[in-house]
């Protein structure tokens, strides 16, 4: 994942223009210099390719124009600026979670991967988590965008509605349904971020986490008295023996997801017993 110097935020553009663009209600841009092949969708597609391959730090109206082999000013006929473009990019990639089979199983020892085949809401919510985990891995730049003010486009709304449908009518209040989704997707986001940071660190240094720990552990053992930190020493050794590193993102994703689902299941069961 690229190390961006600053963080962009969704919802930073002109509200009316952003929403008109997201819902494709703006007037069609006039044809310039005989070009009829330029469109909002083409611009957004090129911008996503730039962000996927070069990182969000490389994204600019000029870079997208270069990729499309057009003048930078041509883009402003369709999209007023980078803020609106980022909203369009996010709304576009969110649509990917609707695809069947989205989200490979990370696996990991002690995981809750069995939930993938679980019937009912638990299996569905498990698939929601994996779809979001996979989305962040396909588009790491998403983790560099603050989305406390999400782009209110059709794909964002469809994603939210579809994900809410996995836990509809199971005994949760509307606020609890929203909170459960925030827990599940937030967990996928956090563990995906750790996984992508590890990948970026390995790429930047040429040293894997396992190699790093193998180099540092012998030195640490000569400096640290394990009897002073007995729990840290014992648990750290056990984790290192299983994962070869101090933190395994895939394992933590699966284990944490299973515990979240356990908690939701306990809440649902308590409602039925009331």
Automatic annotation (TrEMBL):
Q: Which domain of life is it from?
A: Bacteria
What name is this protein filed under?
A: Regulatory TetR family protein
Q: Which GO BP terms apply?
A: negative regulation of DNA-templated transcription
Cite the GO molecular-function annotations of the record: DNA-binding transcription factor activity; transcription cis-regulatory region binding
Origin organism is Actinokineospora auranticolor
Which residues belong to any copy of the HTH tetR-type domain? 37-97
DNA-binding region residues: the ranges are 60-79
Q: Which UniProt keywords apply?
A: DNA-binding, Transcription, Transcription regulation
Q: Which Pfam families match?
A: TetR_C_1, TetR_N
Q: What InterPro entries is this protein classified in? A: Homeodomain-like_sf, HTH-type_TetR-like_transc_reg, HTH_TetR, Repressor_TetR_C, Tet_transcr_reg_TetR-rel_C_sf
